[in-house]
Design brief:
heterodimer, A: mainly alpha, 7 helices, about 65% helix, globular, B: alpha+beta, 6-stranded mixed β-sheet, 5-stranded antiparallel β-sheet
């Protein structure tokens, strides 16, 4: 007889797995990484001591975990690359991503955003998550979430050819860190 | 956001969802097995905790015999070189009733508690963790080093440094820095400490930002008086804030563990803060400069570098220029003129053989400290700084492709000087610290 968590795990997978894969695809900008992200998130959430009793509550935990994992996975890969490249002081060129299949145009556009921009756009715009909750989920300040969301939406709009307005106000300009100029962001930050 | 973009995102999500098949039975079985295994791993954590706690008892007894509580101390500049405390810190008697976080803490109380924490933690210099603890905590992403750093009650406190002696470098971009994570392991298992500050509102770690090892619980309740920062630190006429540092989203609230893993970092003591201290961090720079930053050194050797905005002259937007130059619209911060892009802990530069007479008053910081601008030989140095930043610039421009040098940098000599691309302030010891505006620094495509 399955334990309570096993029953809930099966219910979540049965009822919500495709939706979680869609979420993971958008938040990672990669169809190839999506299934691994979802399965890792399932293991993390159901292994932990988070208190949830329904599939809907579990899905909420899973969506947050997928978003933070997507950012972390990028950081992990970049970190490994950076350690190797650091001595040479190499700037890293943008990755070319060739997406195919359903929603490929949007996924390809999302893939052009930075991981944090992508996560902020998806959590704020598609999941209707508050600035505060997004900040907590991604380990960012609320100001950084507003900035990443505004920049991400602006870039996404430009890539997809739509007119965009940032939800937190077009005038919002909050520095995240004094890193150098990035061409599509319009200046130092 | 426009309804058009909203619709595109919703359409893509719908298409992907429709095309995504179910999770196969084999994959589901693997997920179930791994969840099972992780739940069982907790028991491994508990047995590890038992051994660690037994070891801690002897340590605590020895601490009590060796050390007496340190009285609270105000900042007192000295010139000795601090290192992680070689001796464990004293055990304190916890006052009656639970110790709670507070939104408003006076700096006098914070300083007193830094010296005599109410929260019961004791610290010692980092020691290699037992193999089973390494196995338990060492599974976070990438290279890491697991170290025992202290005790609190029955728990042993372990630090995981995201790096090792060979790779740790305090000047690395925060995304790649040897950041420190803290865990307590006791008979109930292992907990990742997310909110170390006694001040409500100071930033917490997000549980999943750096990954959570199997079987480790997230703990937002535990905090440490000895890791809580005062809001202001004054040394003579020099005052640093910690407001921006405490809100900083990058890195961890414990700081950098480069020293903890045995890599060399040159520091000098600026002020005692109980069991912690304010230190100056120096790293080699270009153009005959030494990069300077300021950091809070924790009792176990982590260095929490203060944000530029917290330092006098570190926030260009807060400088009032005598010649009426407008503050930049965007946030512009100080960078060492001898540091290239994508580095941390490089806020100011100390210039070899600087002729102080070649720098004259040009403005004031928000706190009224004098800001200096170059003249004469200082202008020659300023031009060298600009030339270096231009020479090292390179990026990718839309519709153009890769550009380098002046095509990427785009700031001429006169504009650089007119906009006060290089300026200087005085440090806590009266030394002249030179800064480069961050919006006039080397251009690169992306740090990551």
């Amino acid at each position: 007889m399955p334990t309570r968590w096993e029953g809930l795990l099966e219910q979540v997978v049965r009822e919500r797995y495709p939706r979680l894969v869609a979420h993971a695809t958008l938040v990672s900008g990669s169809r190839a990484d999506a299934q691994d992200l979802v399965q890792d998130a399932l293991i993390t959430v159901f292994s932990g001591r988070a208190r949830f009793t329904t599939a809907a509550q579990a899905e909420a935990y899973l969506r947050r975990t997928i978003a933070s994992r997507a950012v972390d996975e990028h950081r992990r890969r970049a970190r490994q690359r950076k350690v190797m490249d650091h001595a040479a002081g190499l700037a890293v060129p943008p990755q070319e991503v060739a997406e195919r299949g359903p929603g490929a145009d949007v996924v390809a556009a999302l893939a052009q955003l930075s991981p944090r921009e992508r996560a902020c756009v998806v959590l704020r715009q598609m999941d209707d998550m508050s600035v505060h909750d997004t900040a907590v989920t991604l380990g960012l300040s609320e100001g950084a979430v507003k900035r990443y969301t505004a920049d991400g939406i602006a870039r996404l709009g430009a890539l997809l050819g739509t007119t965009t307005t940032a939800p937190d106000g077009p005038e919002e300009r909050i520095a995240v860190r004094p890193v150098p100029f990035r061409p599509q962001e319009g200046g130092a930050r | 956001m426009s309804s058009e973009l909203d619709a595109l995102l919703a359409r893509a999500a719908g298409e992907i969802e429709s095309s995504a098949g179910p999770l196969g039975t084999t994959a589901l079985a693997q997920v179930r097995r791994r969840v099972h295994r992780r739940r069982v791993v907790r028991h491994v954590g508990e047995s590890v905790a038992g051994v660690a706690a037994a070891g801690a008892v002897g340590t605590v007894v020895w601490i009590g015999m060796d050390r007496t509580p340190t009285p609270p101390a105000g900042p007192t500049p000295t010139v000795t070189s601090p290192a992680p405390s070689a001796d464990p810190t004293p055990t304190q008697t916890t006052p009656a009733g639970p110790v709670k976080r507070s939104a408003k803490l006076s700096d006098a109380d914070v300083l007193a508690h830094l010296a005599n924490p109410r929260t019961g933690e004791t610290w010692h210099s980092p020691q290699e963790a037992p193999a089973d603890v390494k196995a338990l905590l060492g599974s976070v992403s990438g290279l890491n080093t697991v170290l025992s750093v202290g005790e609190r009650g029955d728990a042993t406190i372990y630090a995981v440094v995201l790096g090792d002696k060979e790779t740790a470098d305090i000047t690395l971009d925060p995304a790649f820095a040897a950041s420190v994570l803290l865990y307590e392991v006791d008979a109930d298992g292992a907990r990742m400490i997310l909110c170390p500050s006694a001040r409500t509102g100071d930033r917490c770690l997000s549980g999943d930002t750096y990954g959570v090892p199997d079987g480790v619980e997230l703990d937002e309740d535990t905090f440490y008086d000895s890791l809580t920062l005062p809001s202001r630190i004054t040394v003579g006429d020099w005052t640093a804030s910690t407001d921006a540092t405490r809100e900083l989203a990058l890195g961890t609230p414990y700081g950098d563990g480069t020293v903890m893993v045995g890599a060399e970092v040159q520091t000098s003591l600026v002020a005692d803060l109980g069991l912690s201290s304010l230190v100056e961090v120096r790293t080699p720079g270009l153009l005959g400069t030494t990069n300077v930053a300021y950091a809070i050194a924790s009792p176990f050797g982590a260095l929490r570098v203060l944000d530029e905005r917290d330092l006098p002259g570190g926030d260009v937007s807060a400088i009032t220029w005598d010649d009426g130059l407008r503050a930049p619209d965007d946030d512009v911060l100080a960078r060492s003129p001898g540091a290239l892009a994508c580095t941390s802990a490089t806020v100011f530069g100390v210039v070899d053989q600087l002729d102080a007479s070649a720098w004259t008053r040009g403005g004031t910081t928000a706190d009224g400290a004098t800001v200096y601008l170059p003249t004469g030989a200082g202008l020659t140095f300023a031009k060298q700084v600009r030339d270096l930043q231009e020479k090292e610039s390179g990026t990718i421009k839309d519709g153009v492709g890769t550009v380098t040098g002046a095509d990427a940098y785009g700031i001429g000599v006169q504009e650089f000087l007119d906009e006060h691309g290089v300026y200087a302030v005085d440090g806590p010891g009266g030394e002249r610290l030179v800064a480069l505006r961050s919006d006039m620094a080397q251009v690169v495509f992306e740090c990551v």
